[in-house]
Amino acid sequence: MDITRSGFEPVYCTIVPPHLLDRLSQAENPAIAGAARHTLVQDEANRSRRLTTAAATVRPTIASAADAKPNRTIHDAENGTTLPGTKVRSEGEEPGQDATVNRAYAGLGATFELFLKGYERNSIDGNGLPLIATVHYDEKYGNAFWDGKQMVFGDGDGEIFLDFTIPVDVMAHELTHGVTQYTANLTYSGQSGALNESVSDVFGSLVKQYTLGQTADQADWLIGEGLLAPDVQGVALRSMKAPGTAYDDDVLGKDPQPGHMDDYVDTEQDNGGVHINSGIPNRAFHLLATRLGGNAWERAGQIWYDVLTGGELAVDCTFADFAKATIDKTAERYGQGDEHEAVVKAWSEVGVPTA
Length: 355
Fold this sequence. Notes:
Blueprint: E1 13-14, H1 18-24, H2 30-53, E2 72-76, E3 86-90, H3 99-119, E4 131-135, E5 144-146, E6 151-153, H4 168-182, H5 190-212, E7 222-223, E8 238-239, E9 248-249, E10 253-254, H6 270-273, H7 279-292, H8 299-309, H9 319-334, H10 338-349
Parallel strand pairs: 2-4, 4-6
Antiparallel strand pairs: 1-5, 2-3, 5-6, 7-8, 9-10
């Protein structure tokens, strides 16, 4: 069941957290520092604009997914900031010469396909919402975001970040913020905000695994693999398997994500650490998926999807609230067998109570 929360305004969600850009803005290399400062300024302007223009999400009339097909449109900002930009590819058109446009088109399609075939969800809102994306946003813009209506991708600065359409999980991560927007609408701060981010990492990774045909054991469980420039000492933005190990670089710093509640980070940055503490529920999902084995988007992903769309989560739910909801939904769908035991163990291993 999809739900709408009264008074809701879609949040502005970026894949690269502000605390990371803050660090880069202090780099000795002026090219890196300048690009990071510019990205921070642009993000803040977009965030402020989103708060003043956002309208409450309208509850969709759920349409049958039987004959659902994606409706994608890719625009080119031509290194400007006017959205959506010039239309360069519509649904059904053949690939062009711009690899960034082609990757964005394919990434939107891959995300649509997993939600449709895995969970019978017809697009982001469950009712065939057109998928709109803008590429080549701004100059040396080091981020990608969902603004409540569409996807936007920067080209990166070439020093730290490459083209943000390279990792399919980045695209799927941001689109999943849209799914959350139309379902649980988790408040974007503190633990509920970290869950908002974690849910996007979960389904971002699942889209990547689905696209590559990987089982849970075969997957790398990295978010943003391929996004970091060759000279950066790191493999991705985050690791769901081992939070805190995605990068350790003189310029970028060290990955601050914890993987256990004992290491939970209390901070006022990043809306209360939404991109940092998301490592805890991320690891719980990885533990569940690998313990169950097989395709992670099936049993493990189904449980998370059931919770996200069940209509029972409070918008400000805690990790413990979410964990209890996963146990309840597991029992409803699978009974008290292996799946139930695996969910309980997964949350226990990251220090989140479920009793």
